[in-house]
# Entry
Amino acid sequence: MTDRLAVLRRLLIERKLDAVLVAGVADVRYLSGFRGDEAIVVVDGEQAFICSDSRFWAQIADEVAGFELVKSEGGGALIADALAAWVAACGRDEAELRLGFQGDVATYSSYRRLRRRFGGRLVNVGGRVSALREVKDDAELATIPTTTVEEMRASPVLRQFFPALDDDFRLICSTPVRRRATLGGNLVNASPTGDLIVFFLALNATVGLKEKRSQRQVALRDFYQSYKRLAKKEHELLEWISFELPNRPAGFSFEKVSKRQYLDIASVNSAMHIEIADGMIKQIGLSAGGVAPIPLFLGNTVDYLIGKPLTAGHLRDATAITQREISPISDTRGAADYKRLLLRQLIHAHFLKLFPQEIRPGDLR
# Structure
């Protein structure tokens, strides 16, 4: 979390602030690692404070490092206690201090409470703190499991790399559900047709697991062992997921077939992440849901395609290999043979969508 605090402290310099008060639940979690739902964080140029009530003191001790715990009675006292601890530590006249606050999450009543409790100057930093949660580098993007499906759909960072993200995620569920459903919930639910699981399997994702101070990571393709059985210990929590980013602007495709186009569980779904160099398939990730007891990374198909020229003939051979990797069953969402046909057509659709000049529908018959 120290790197995240370093980034936040650049905002202090930019806005000439002595500290910033962070109250948004997701932002507190992002900066400190605290998974509870009631805490205030104050960060200045040298120190960081986290204030909460007695329900969460033990949890903070277990989850948070690099922050001084300020013990509070909770409720309306959180802001006052957090500010009192910071002002006392900095040793300056409160009237001279400039404190940033989150105008994007502050309610009118919380702002008035802050105004009454702080004698210095308040500076609205708007959504600048929340924007820090869009963490990216050149190779991968890391996000926390409590990110909602709607937050992912609306993310400007993700949209840079996944131009069809808005349309793809509208197929997953309704807007009210997207606002509540989380990435972590989708992953650990382990549905064989989990849309986000299939999405991230194709991106060669890795998940981080934590139990108290013990941490480890597992490739998402190895996370699902059998139907609804995970490579996760009873008390381990899913802490993060990291994944490879596709080449911009193309390089990724998500496809889904269900009885209804919207608001329905997939009969079969699939995703592909691909990198082409000089007409050759340099890298590829290919996944499928609804065709096995678990969401599948199609490893044999991928092994065949890597290093091959991008041609319709190799694609036909690849889908024949896919048929040997899957084991669909007949159920209310379709017969087994129908699901085999669907997956073949979805894999064809990936290539037809991303490479319309190289692969034509007539070549795949």
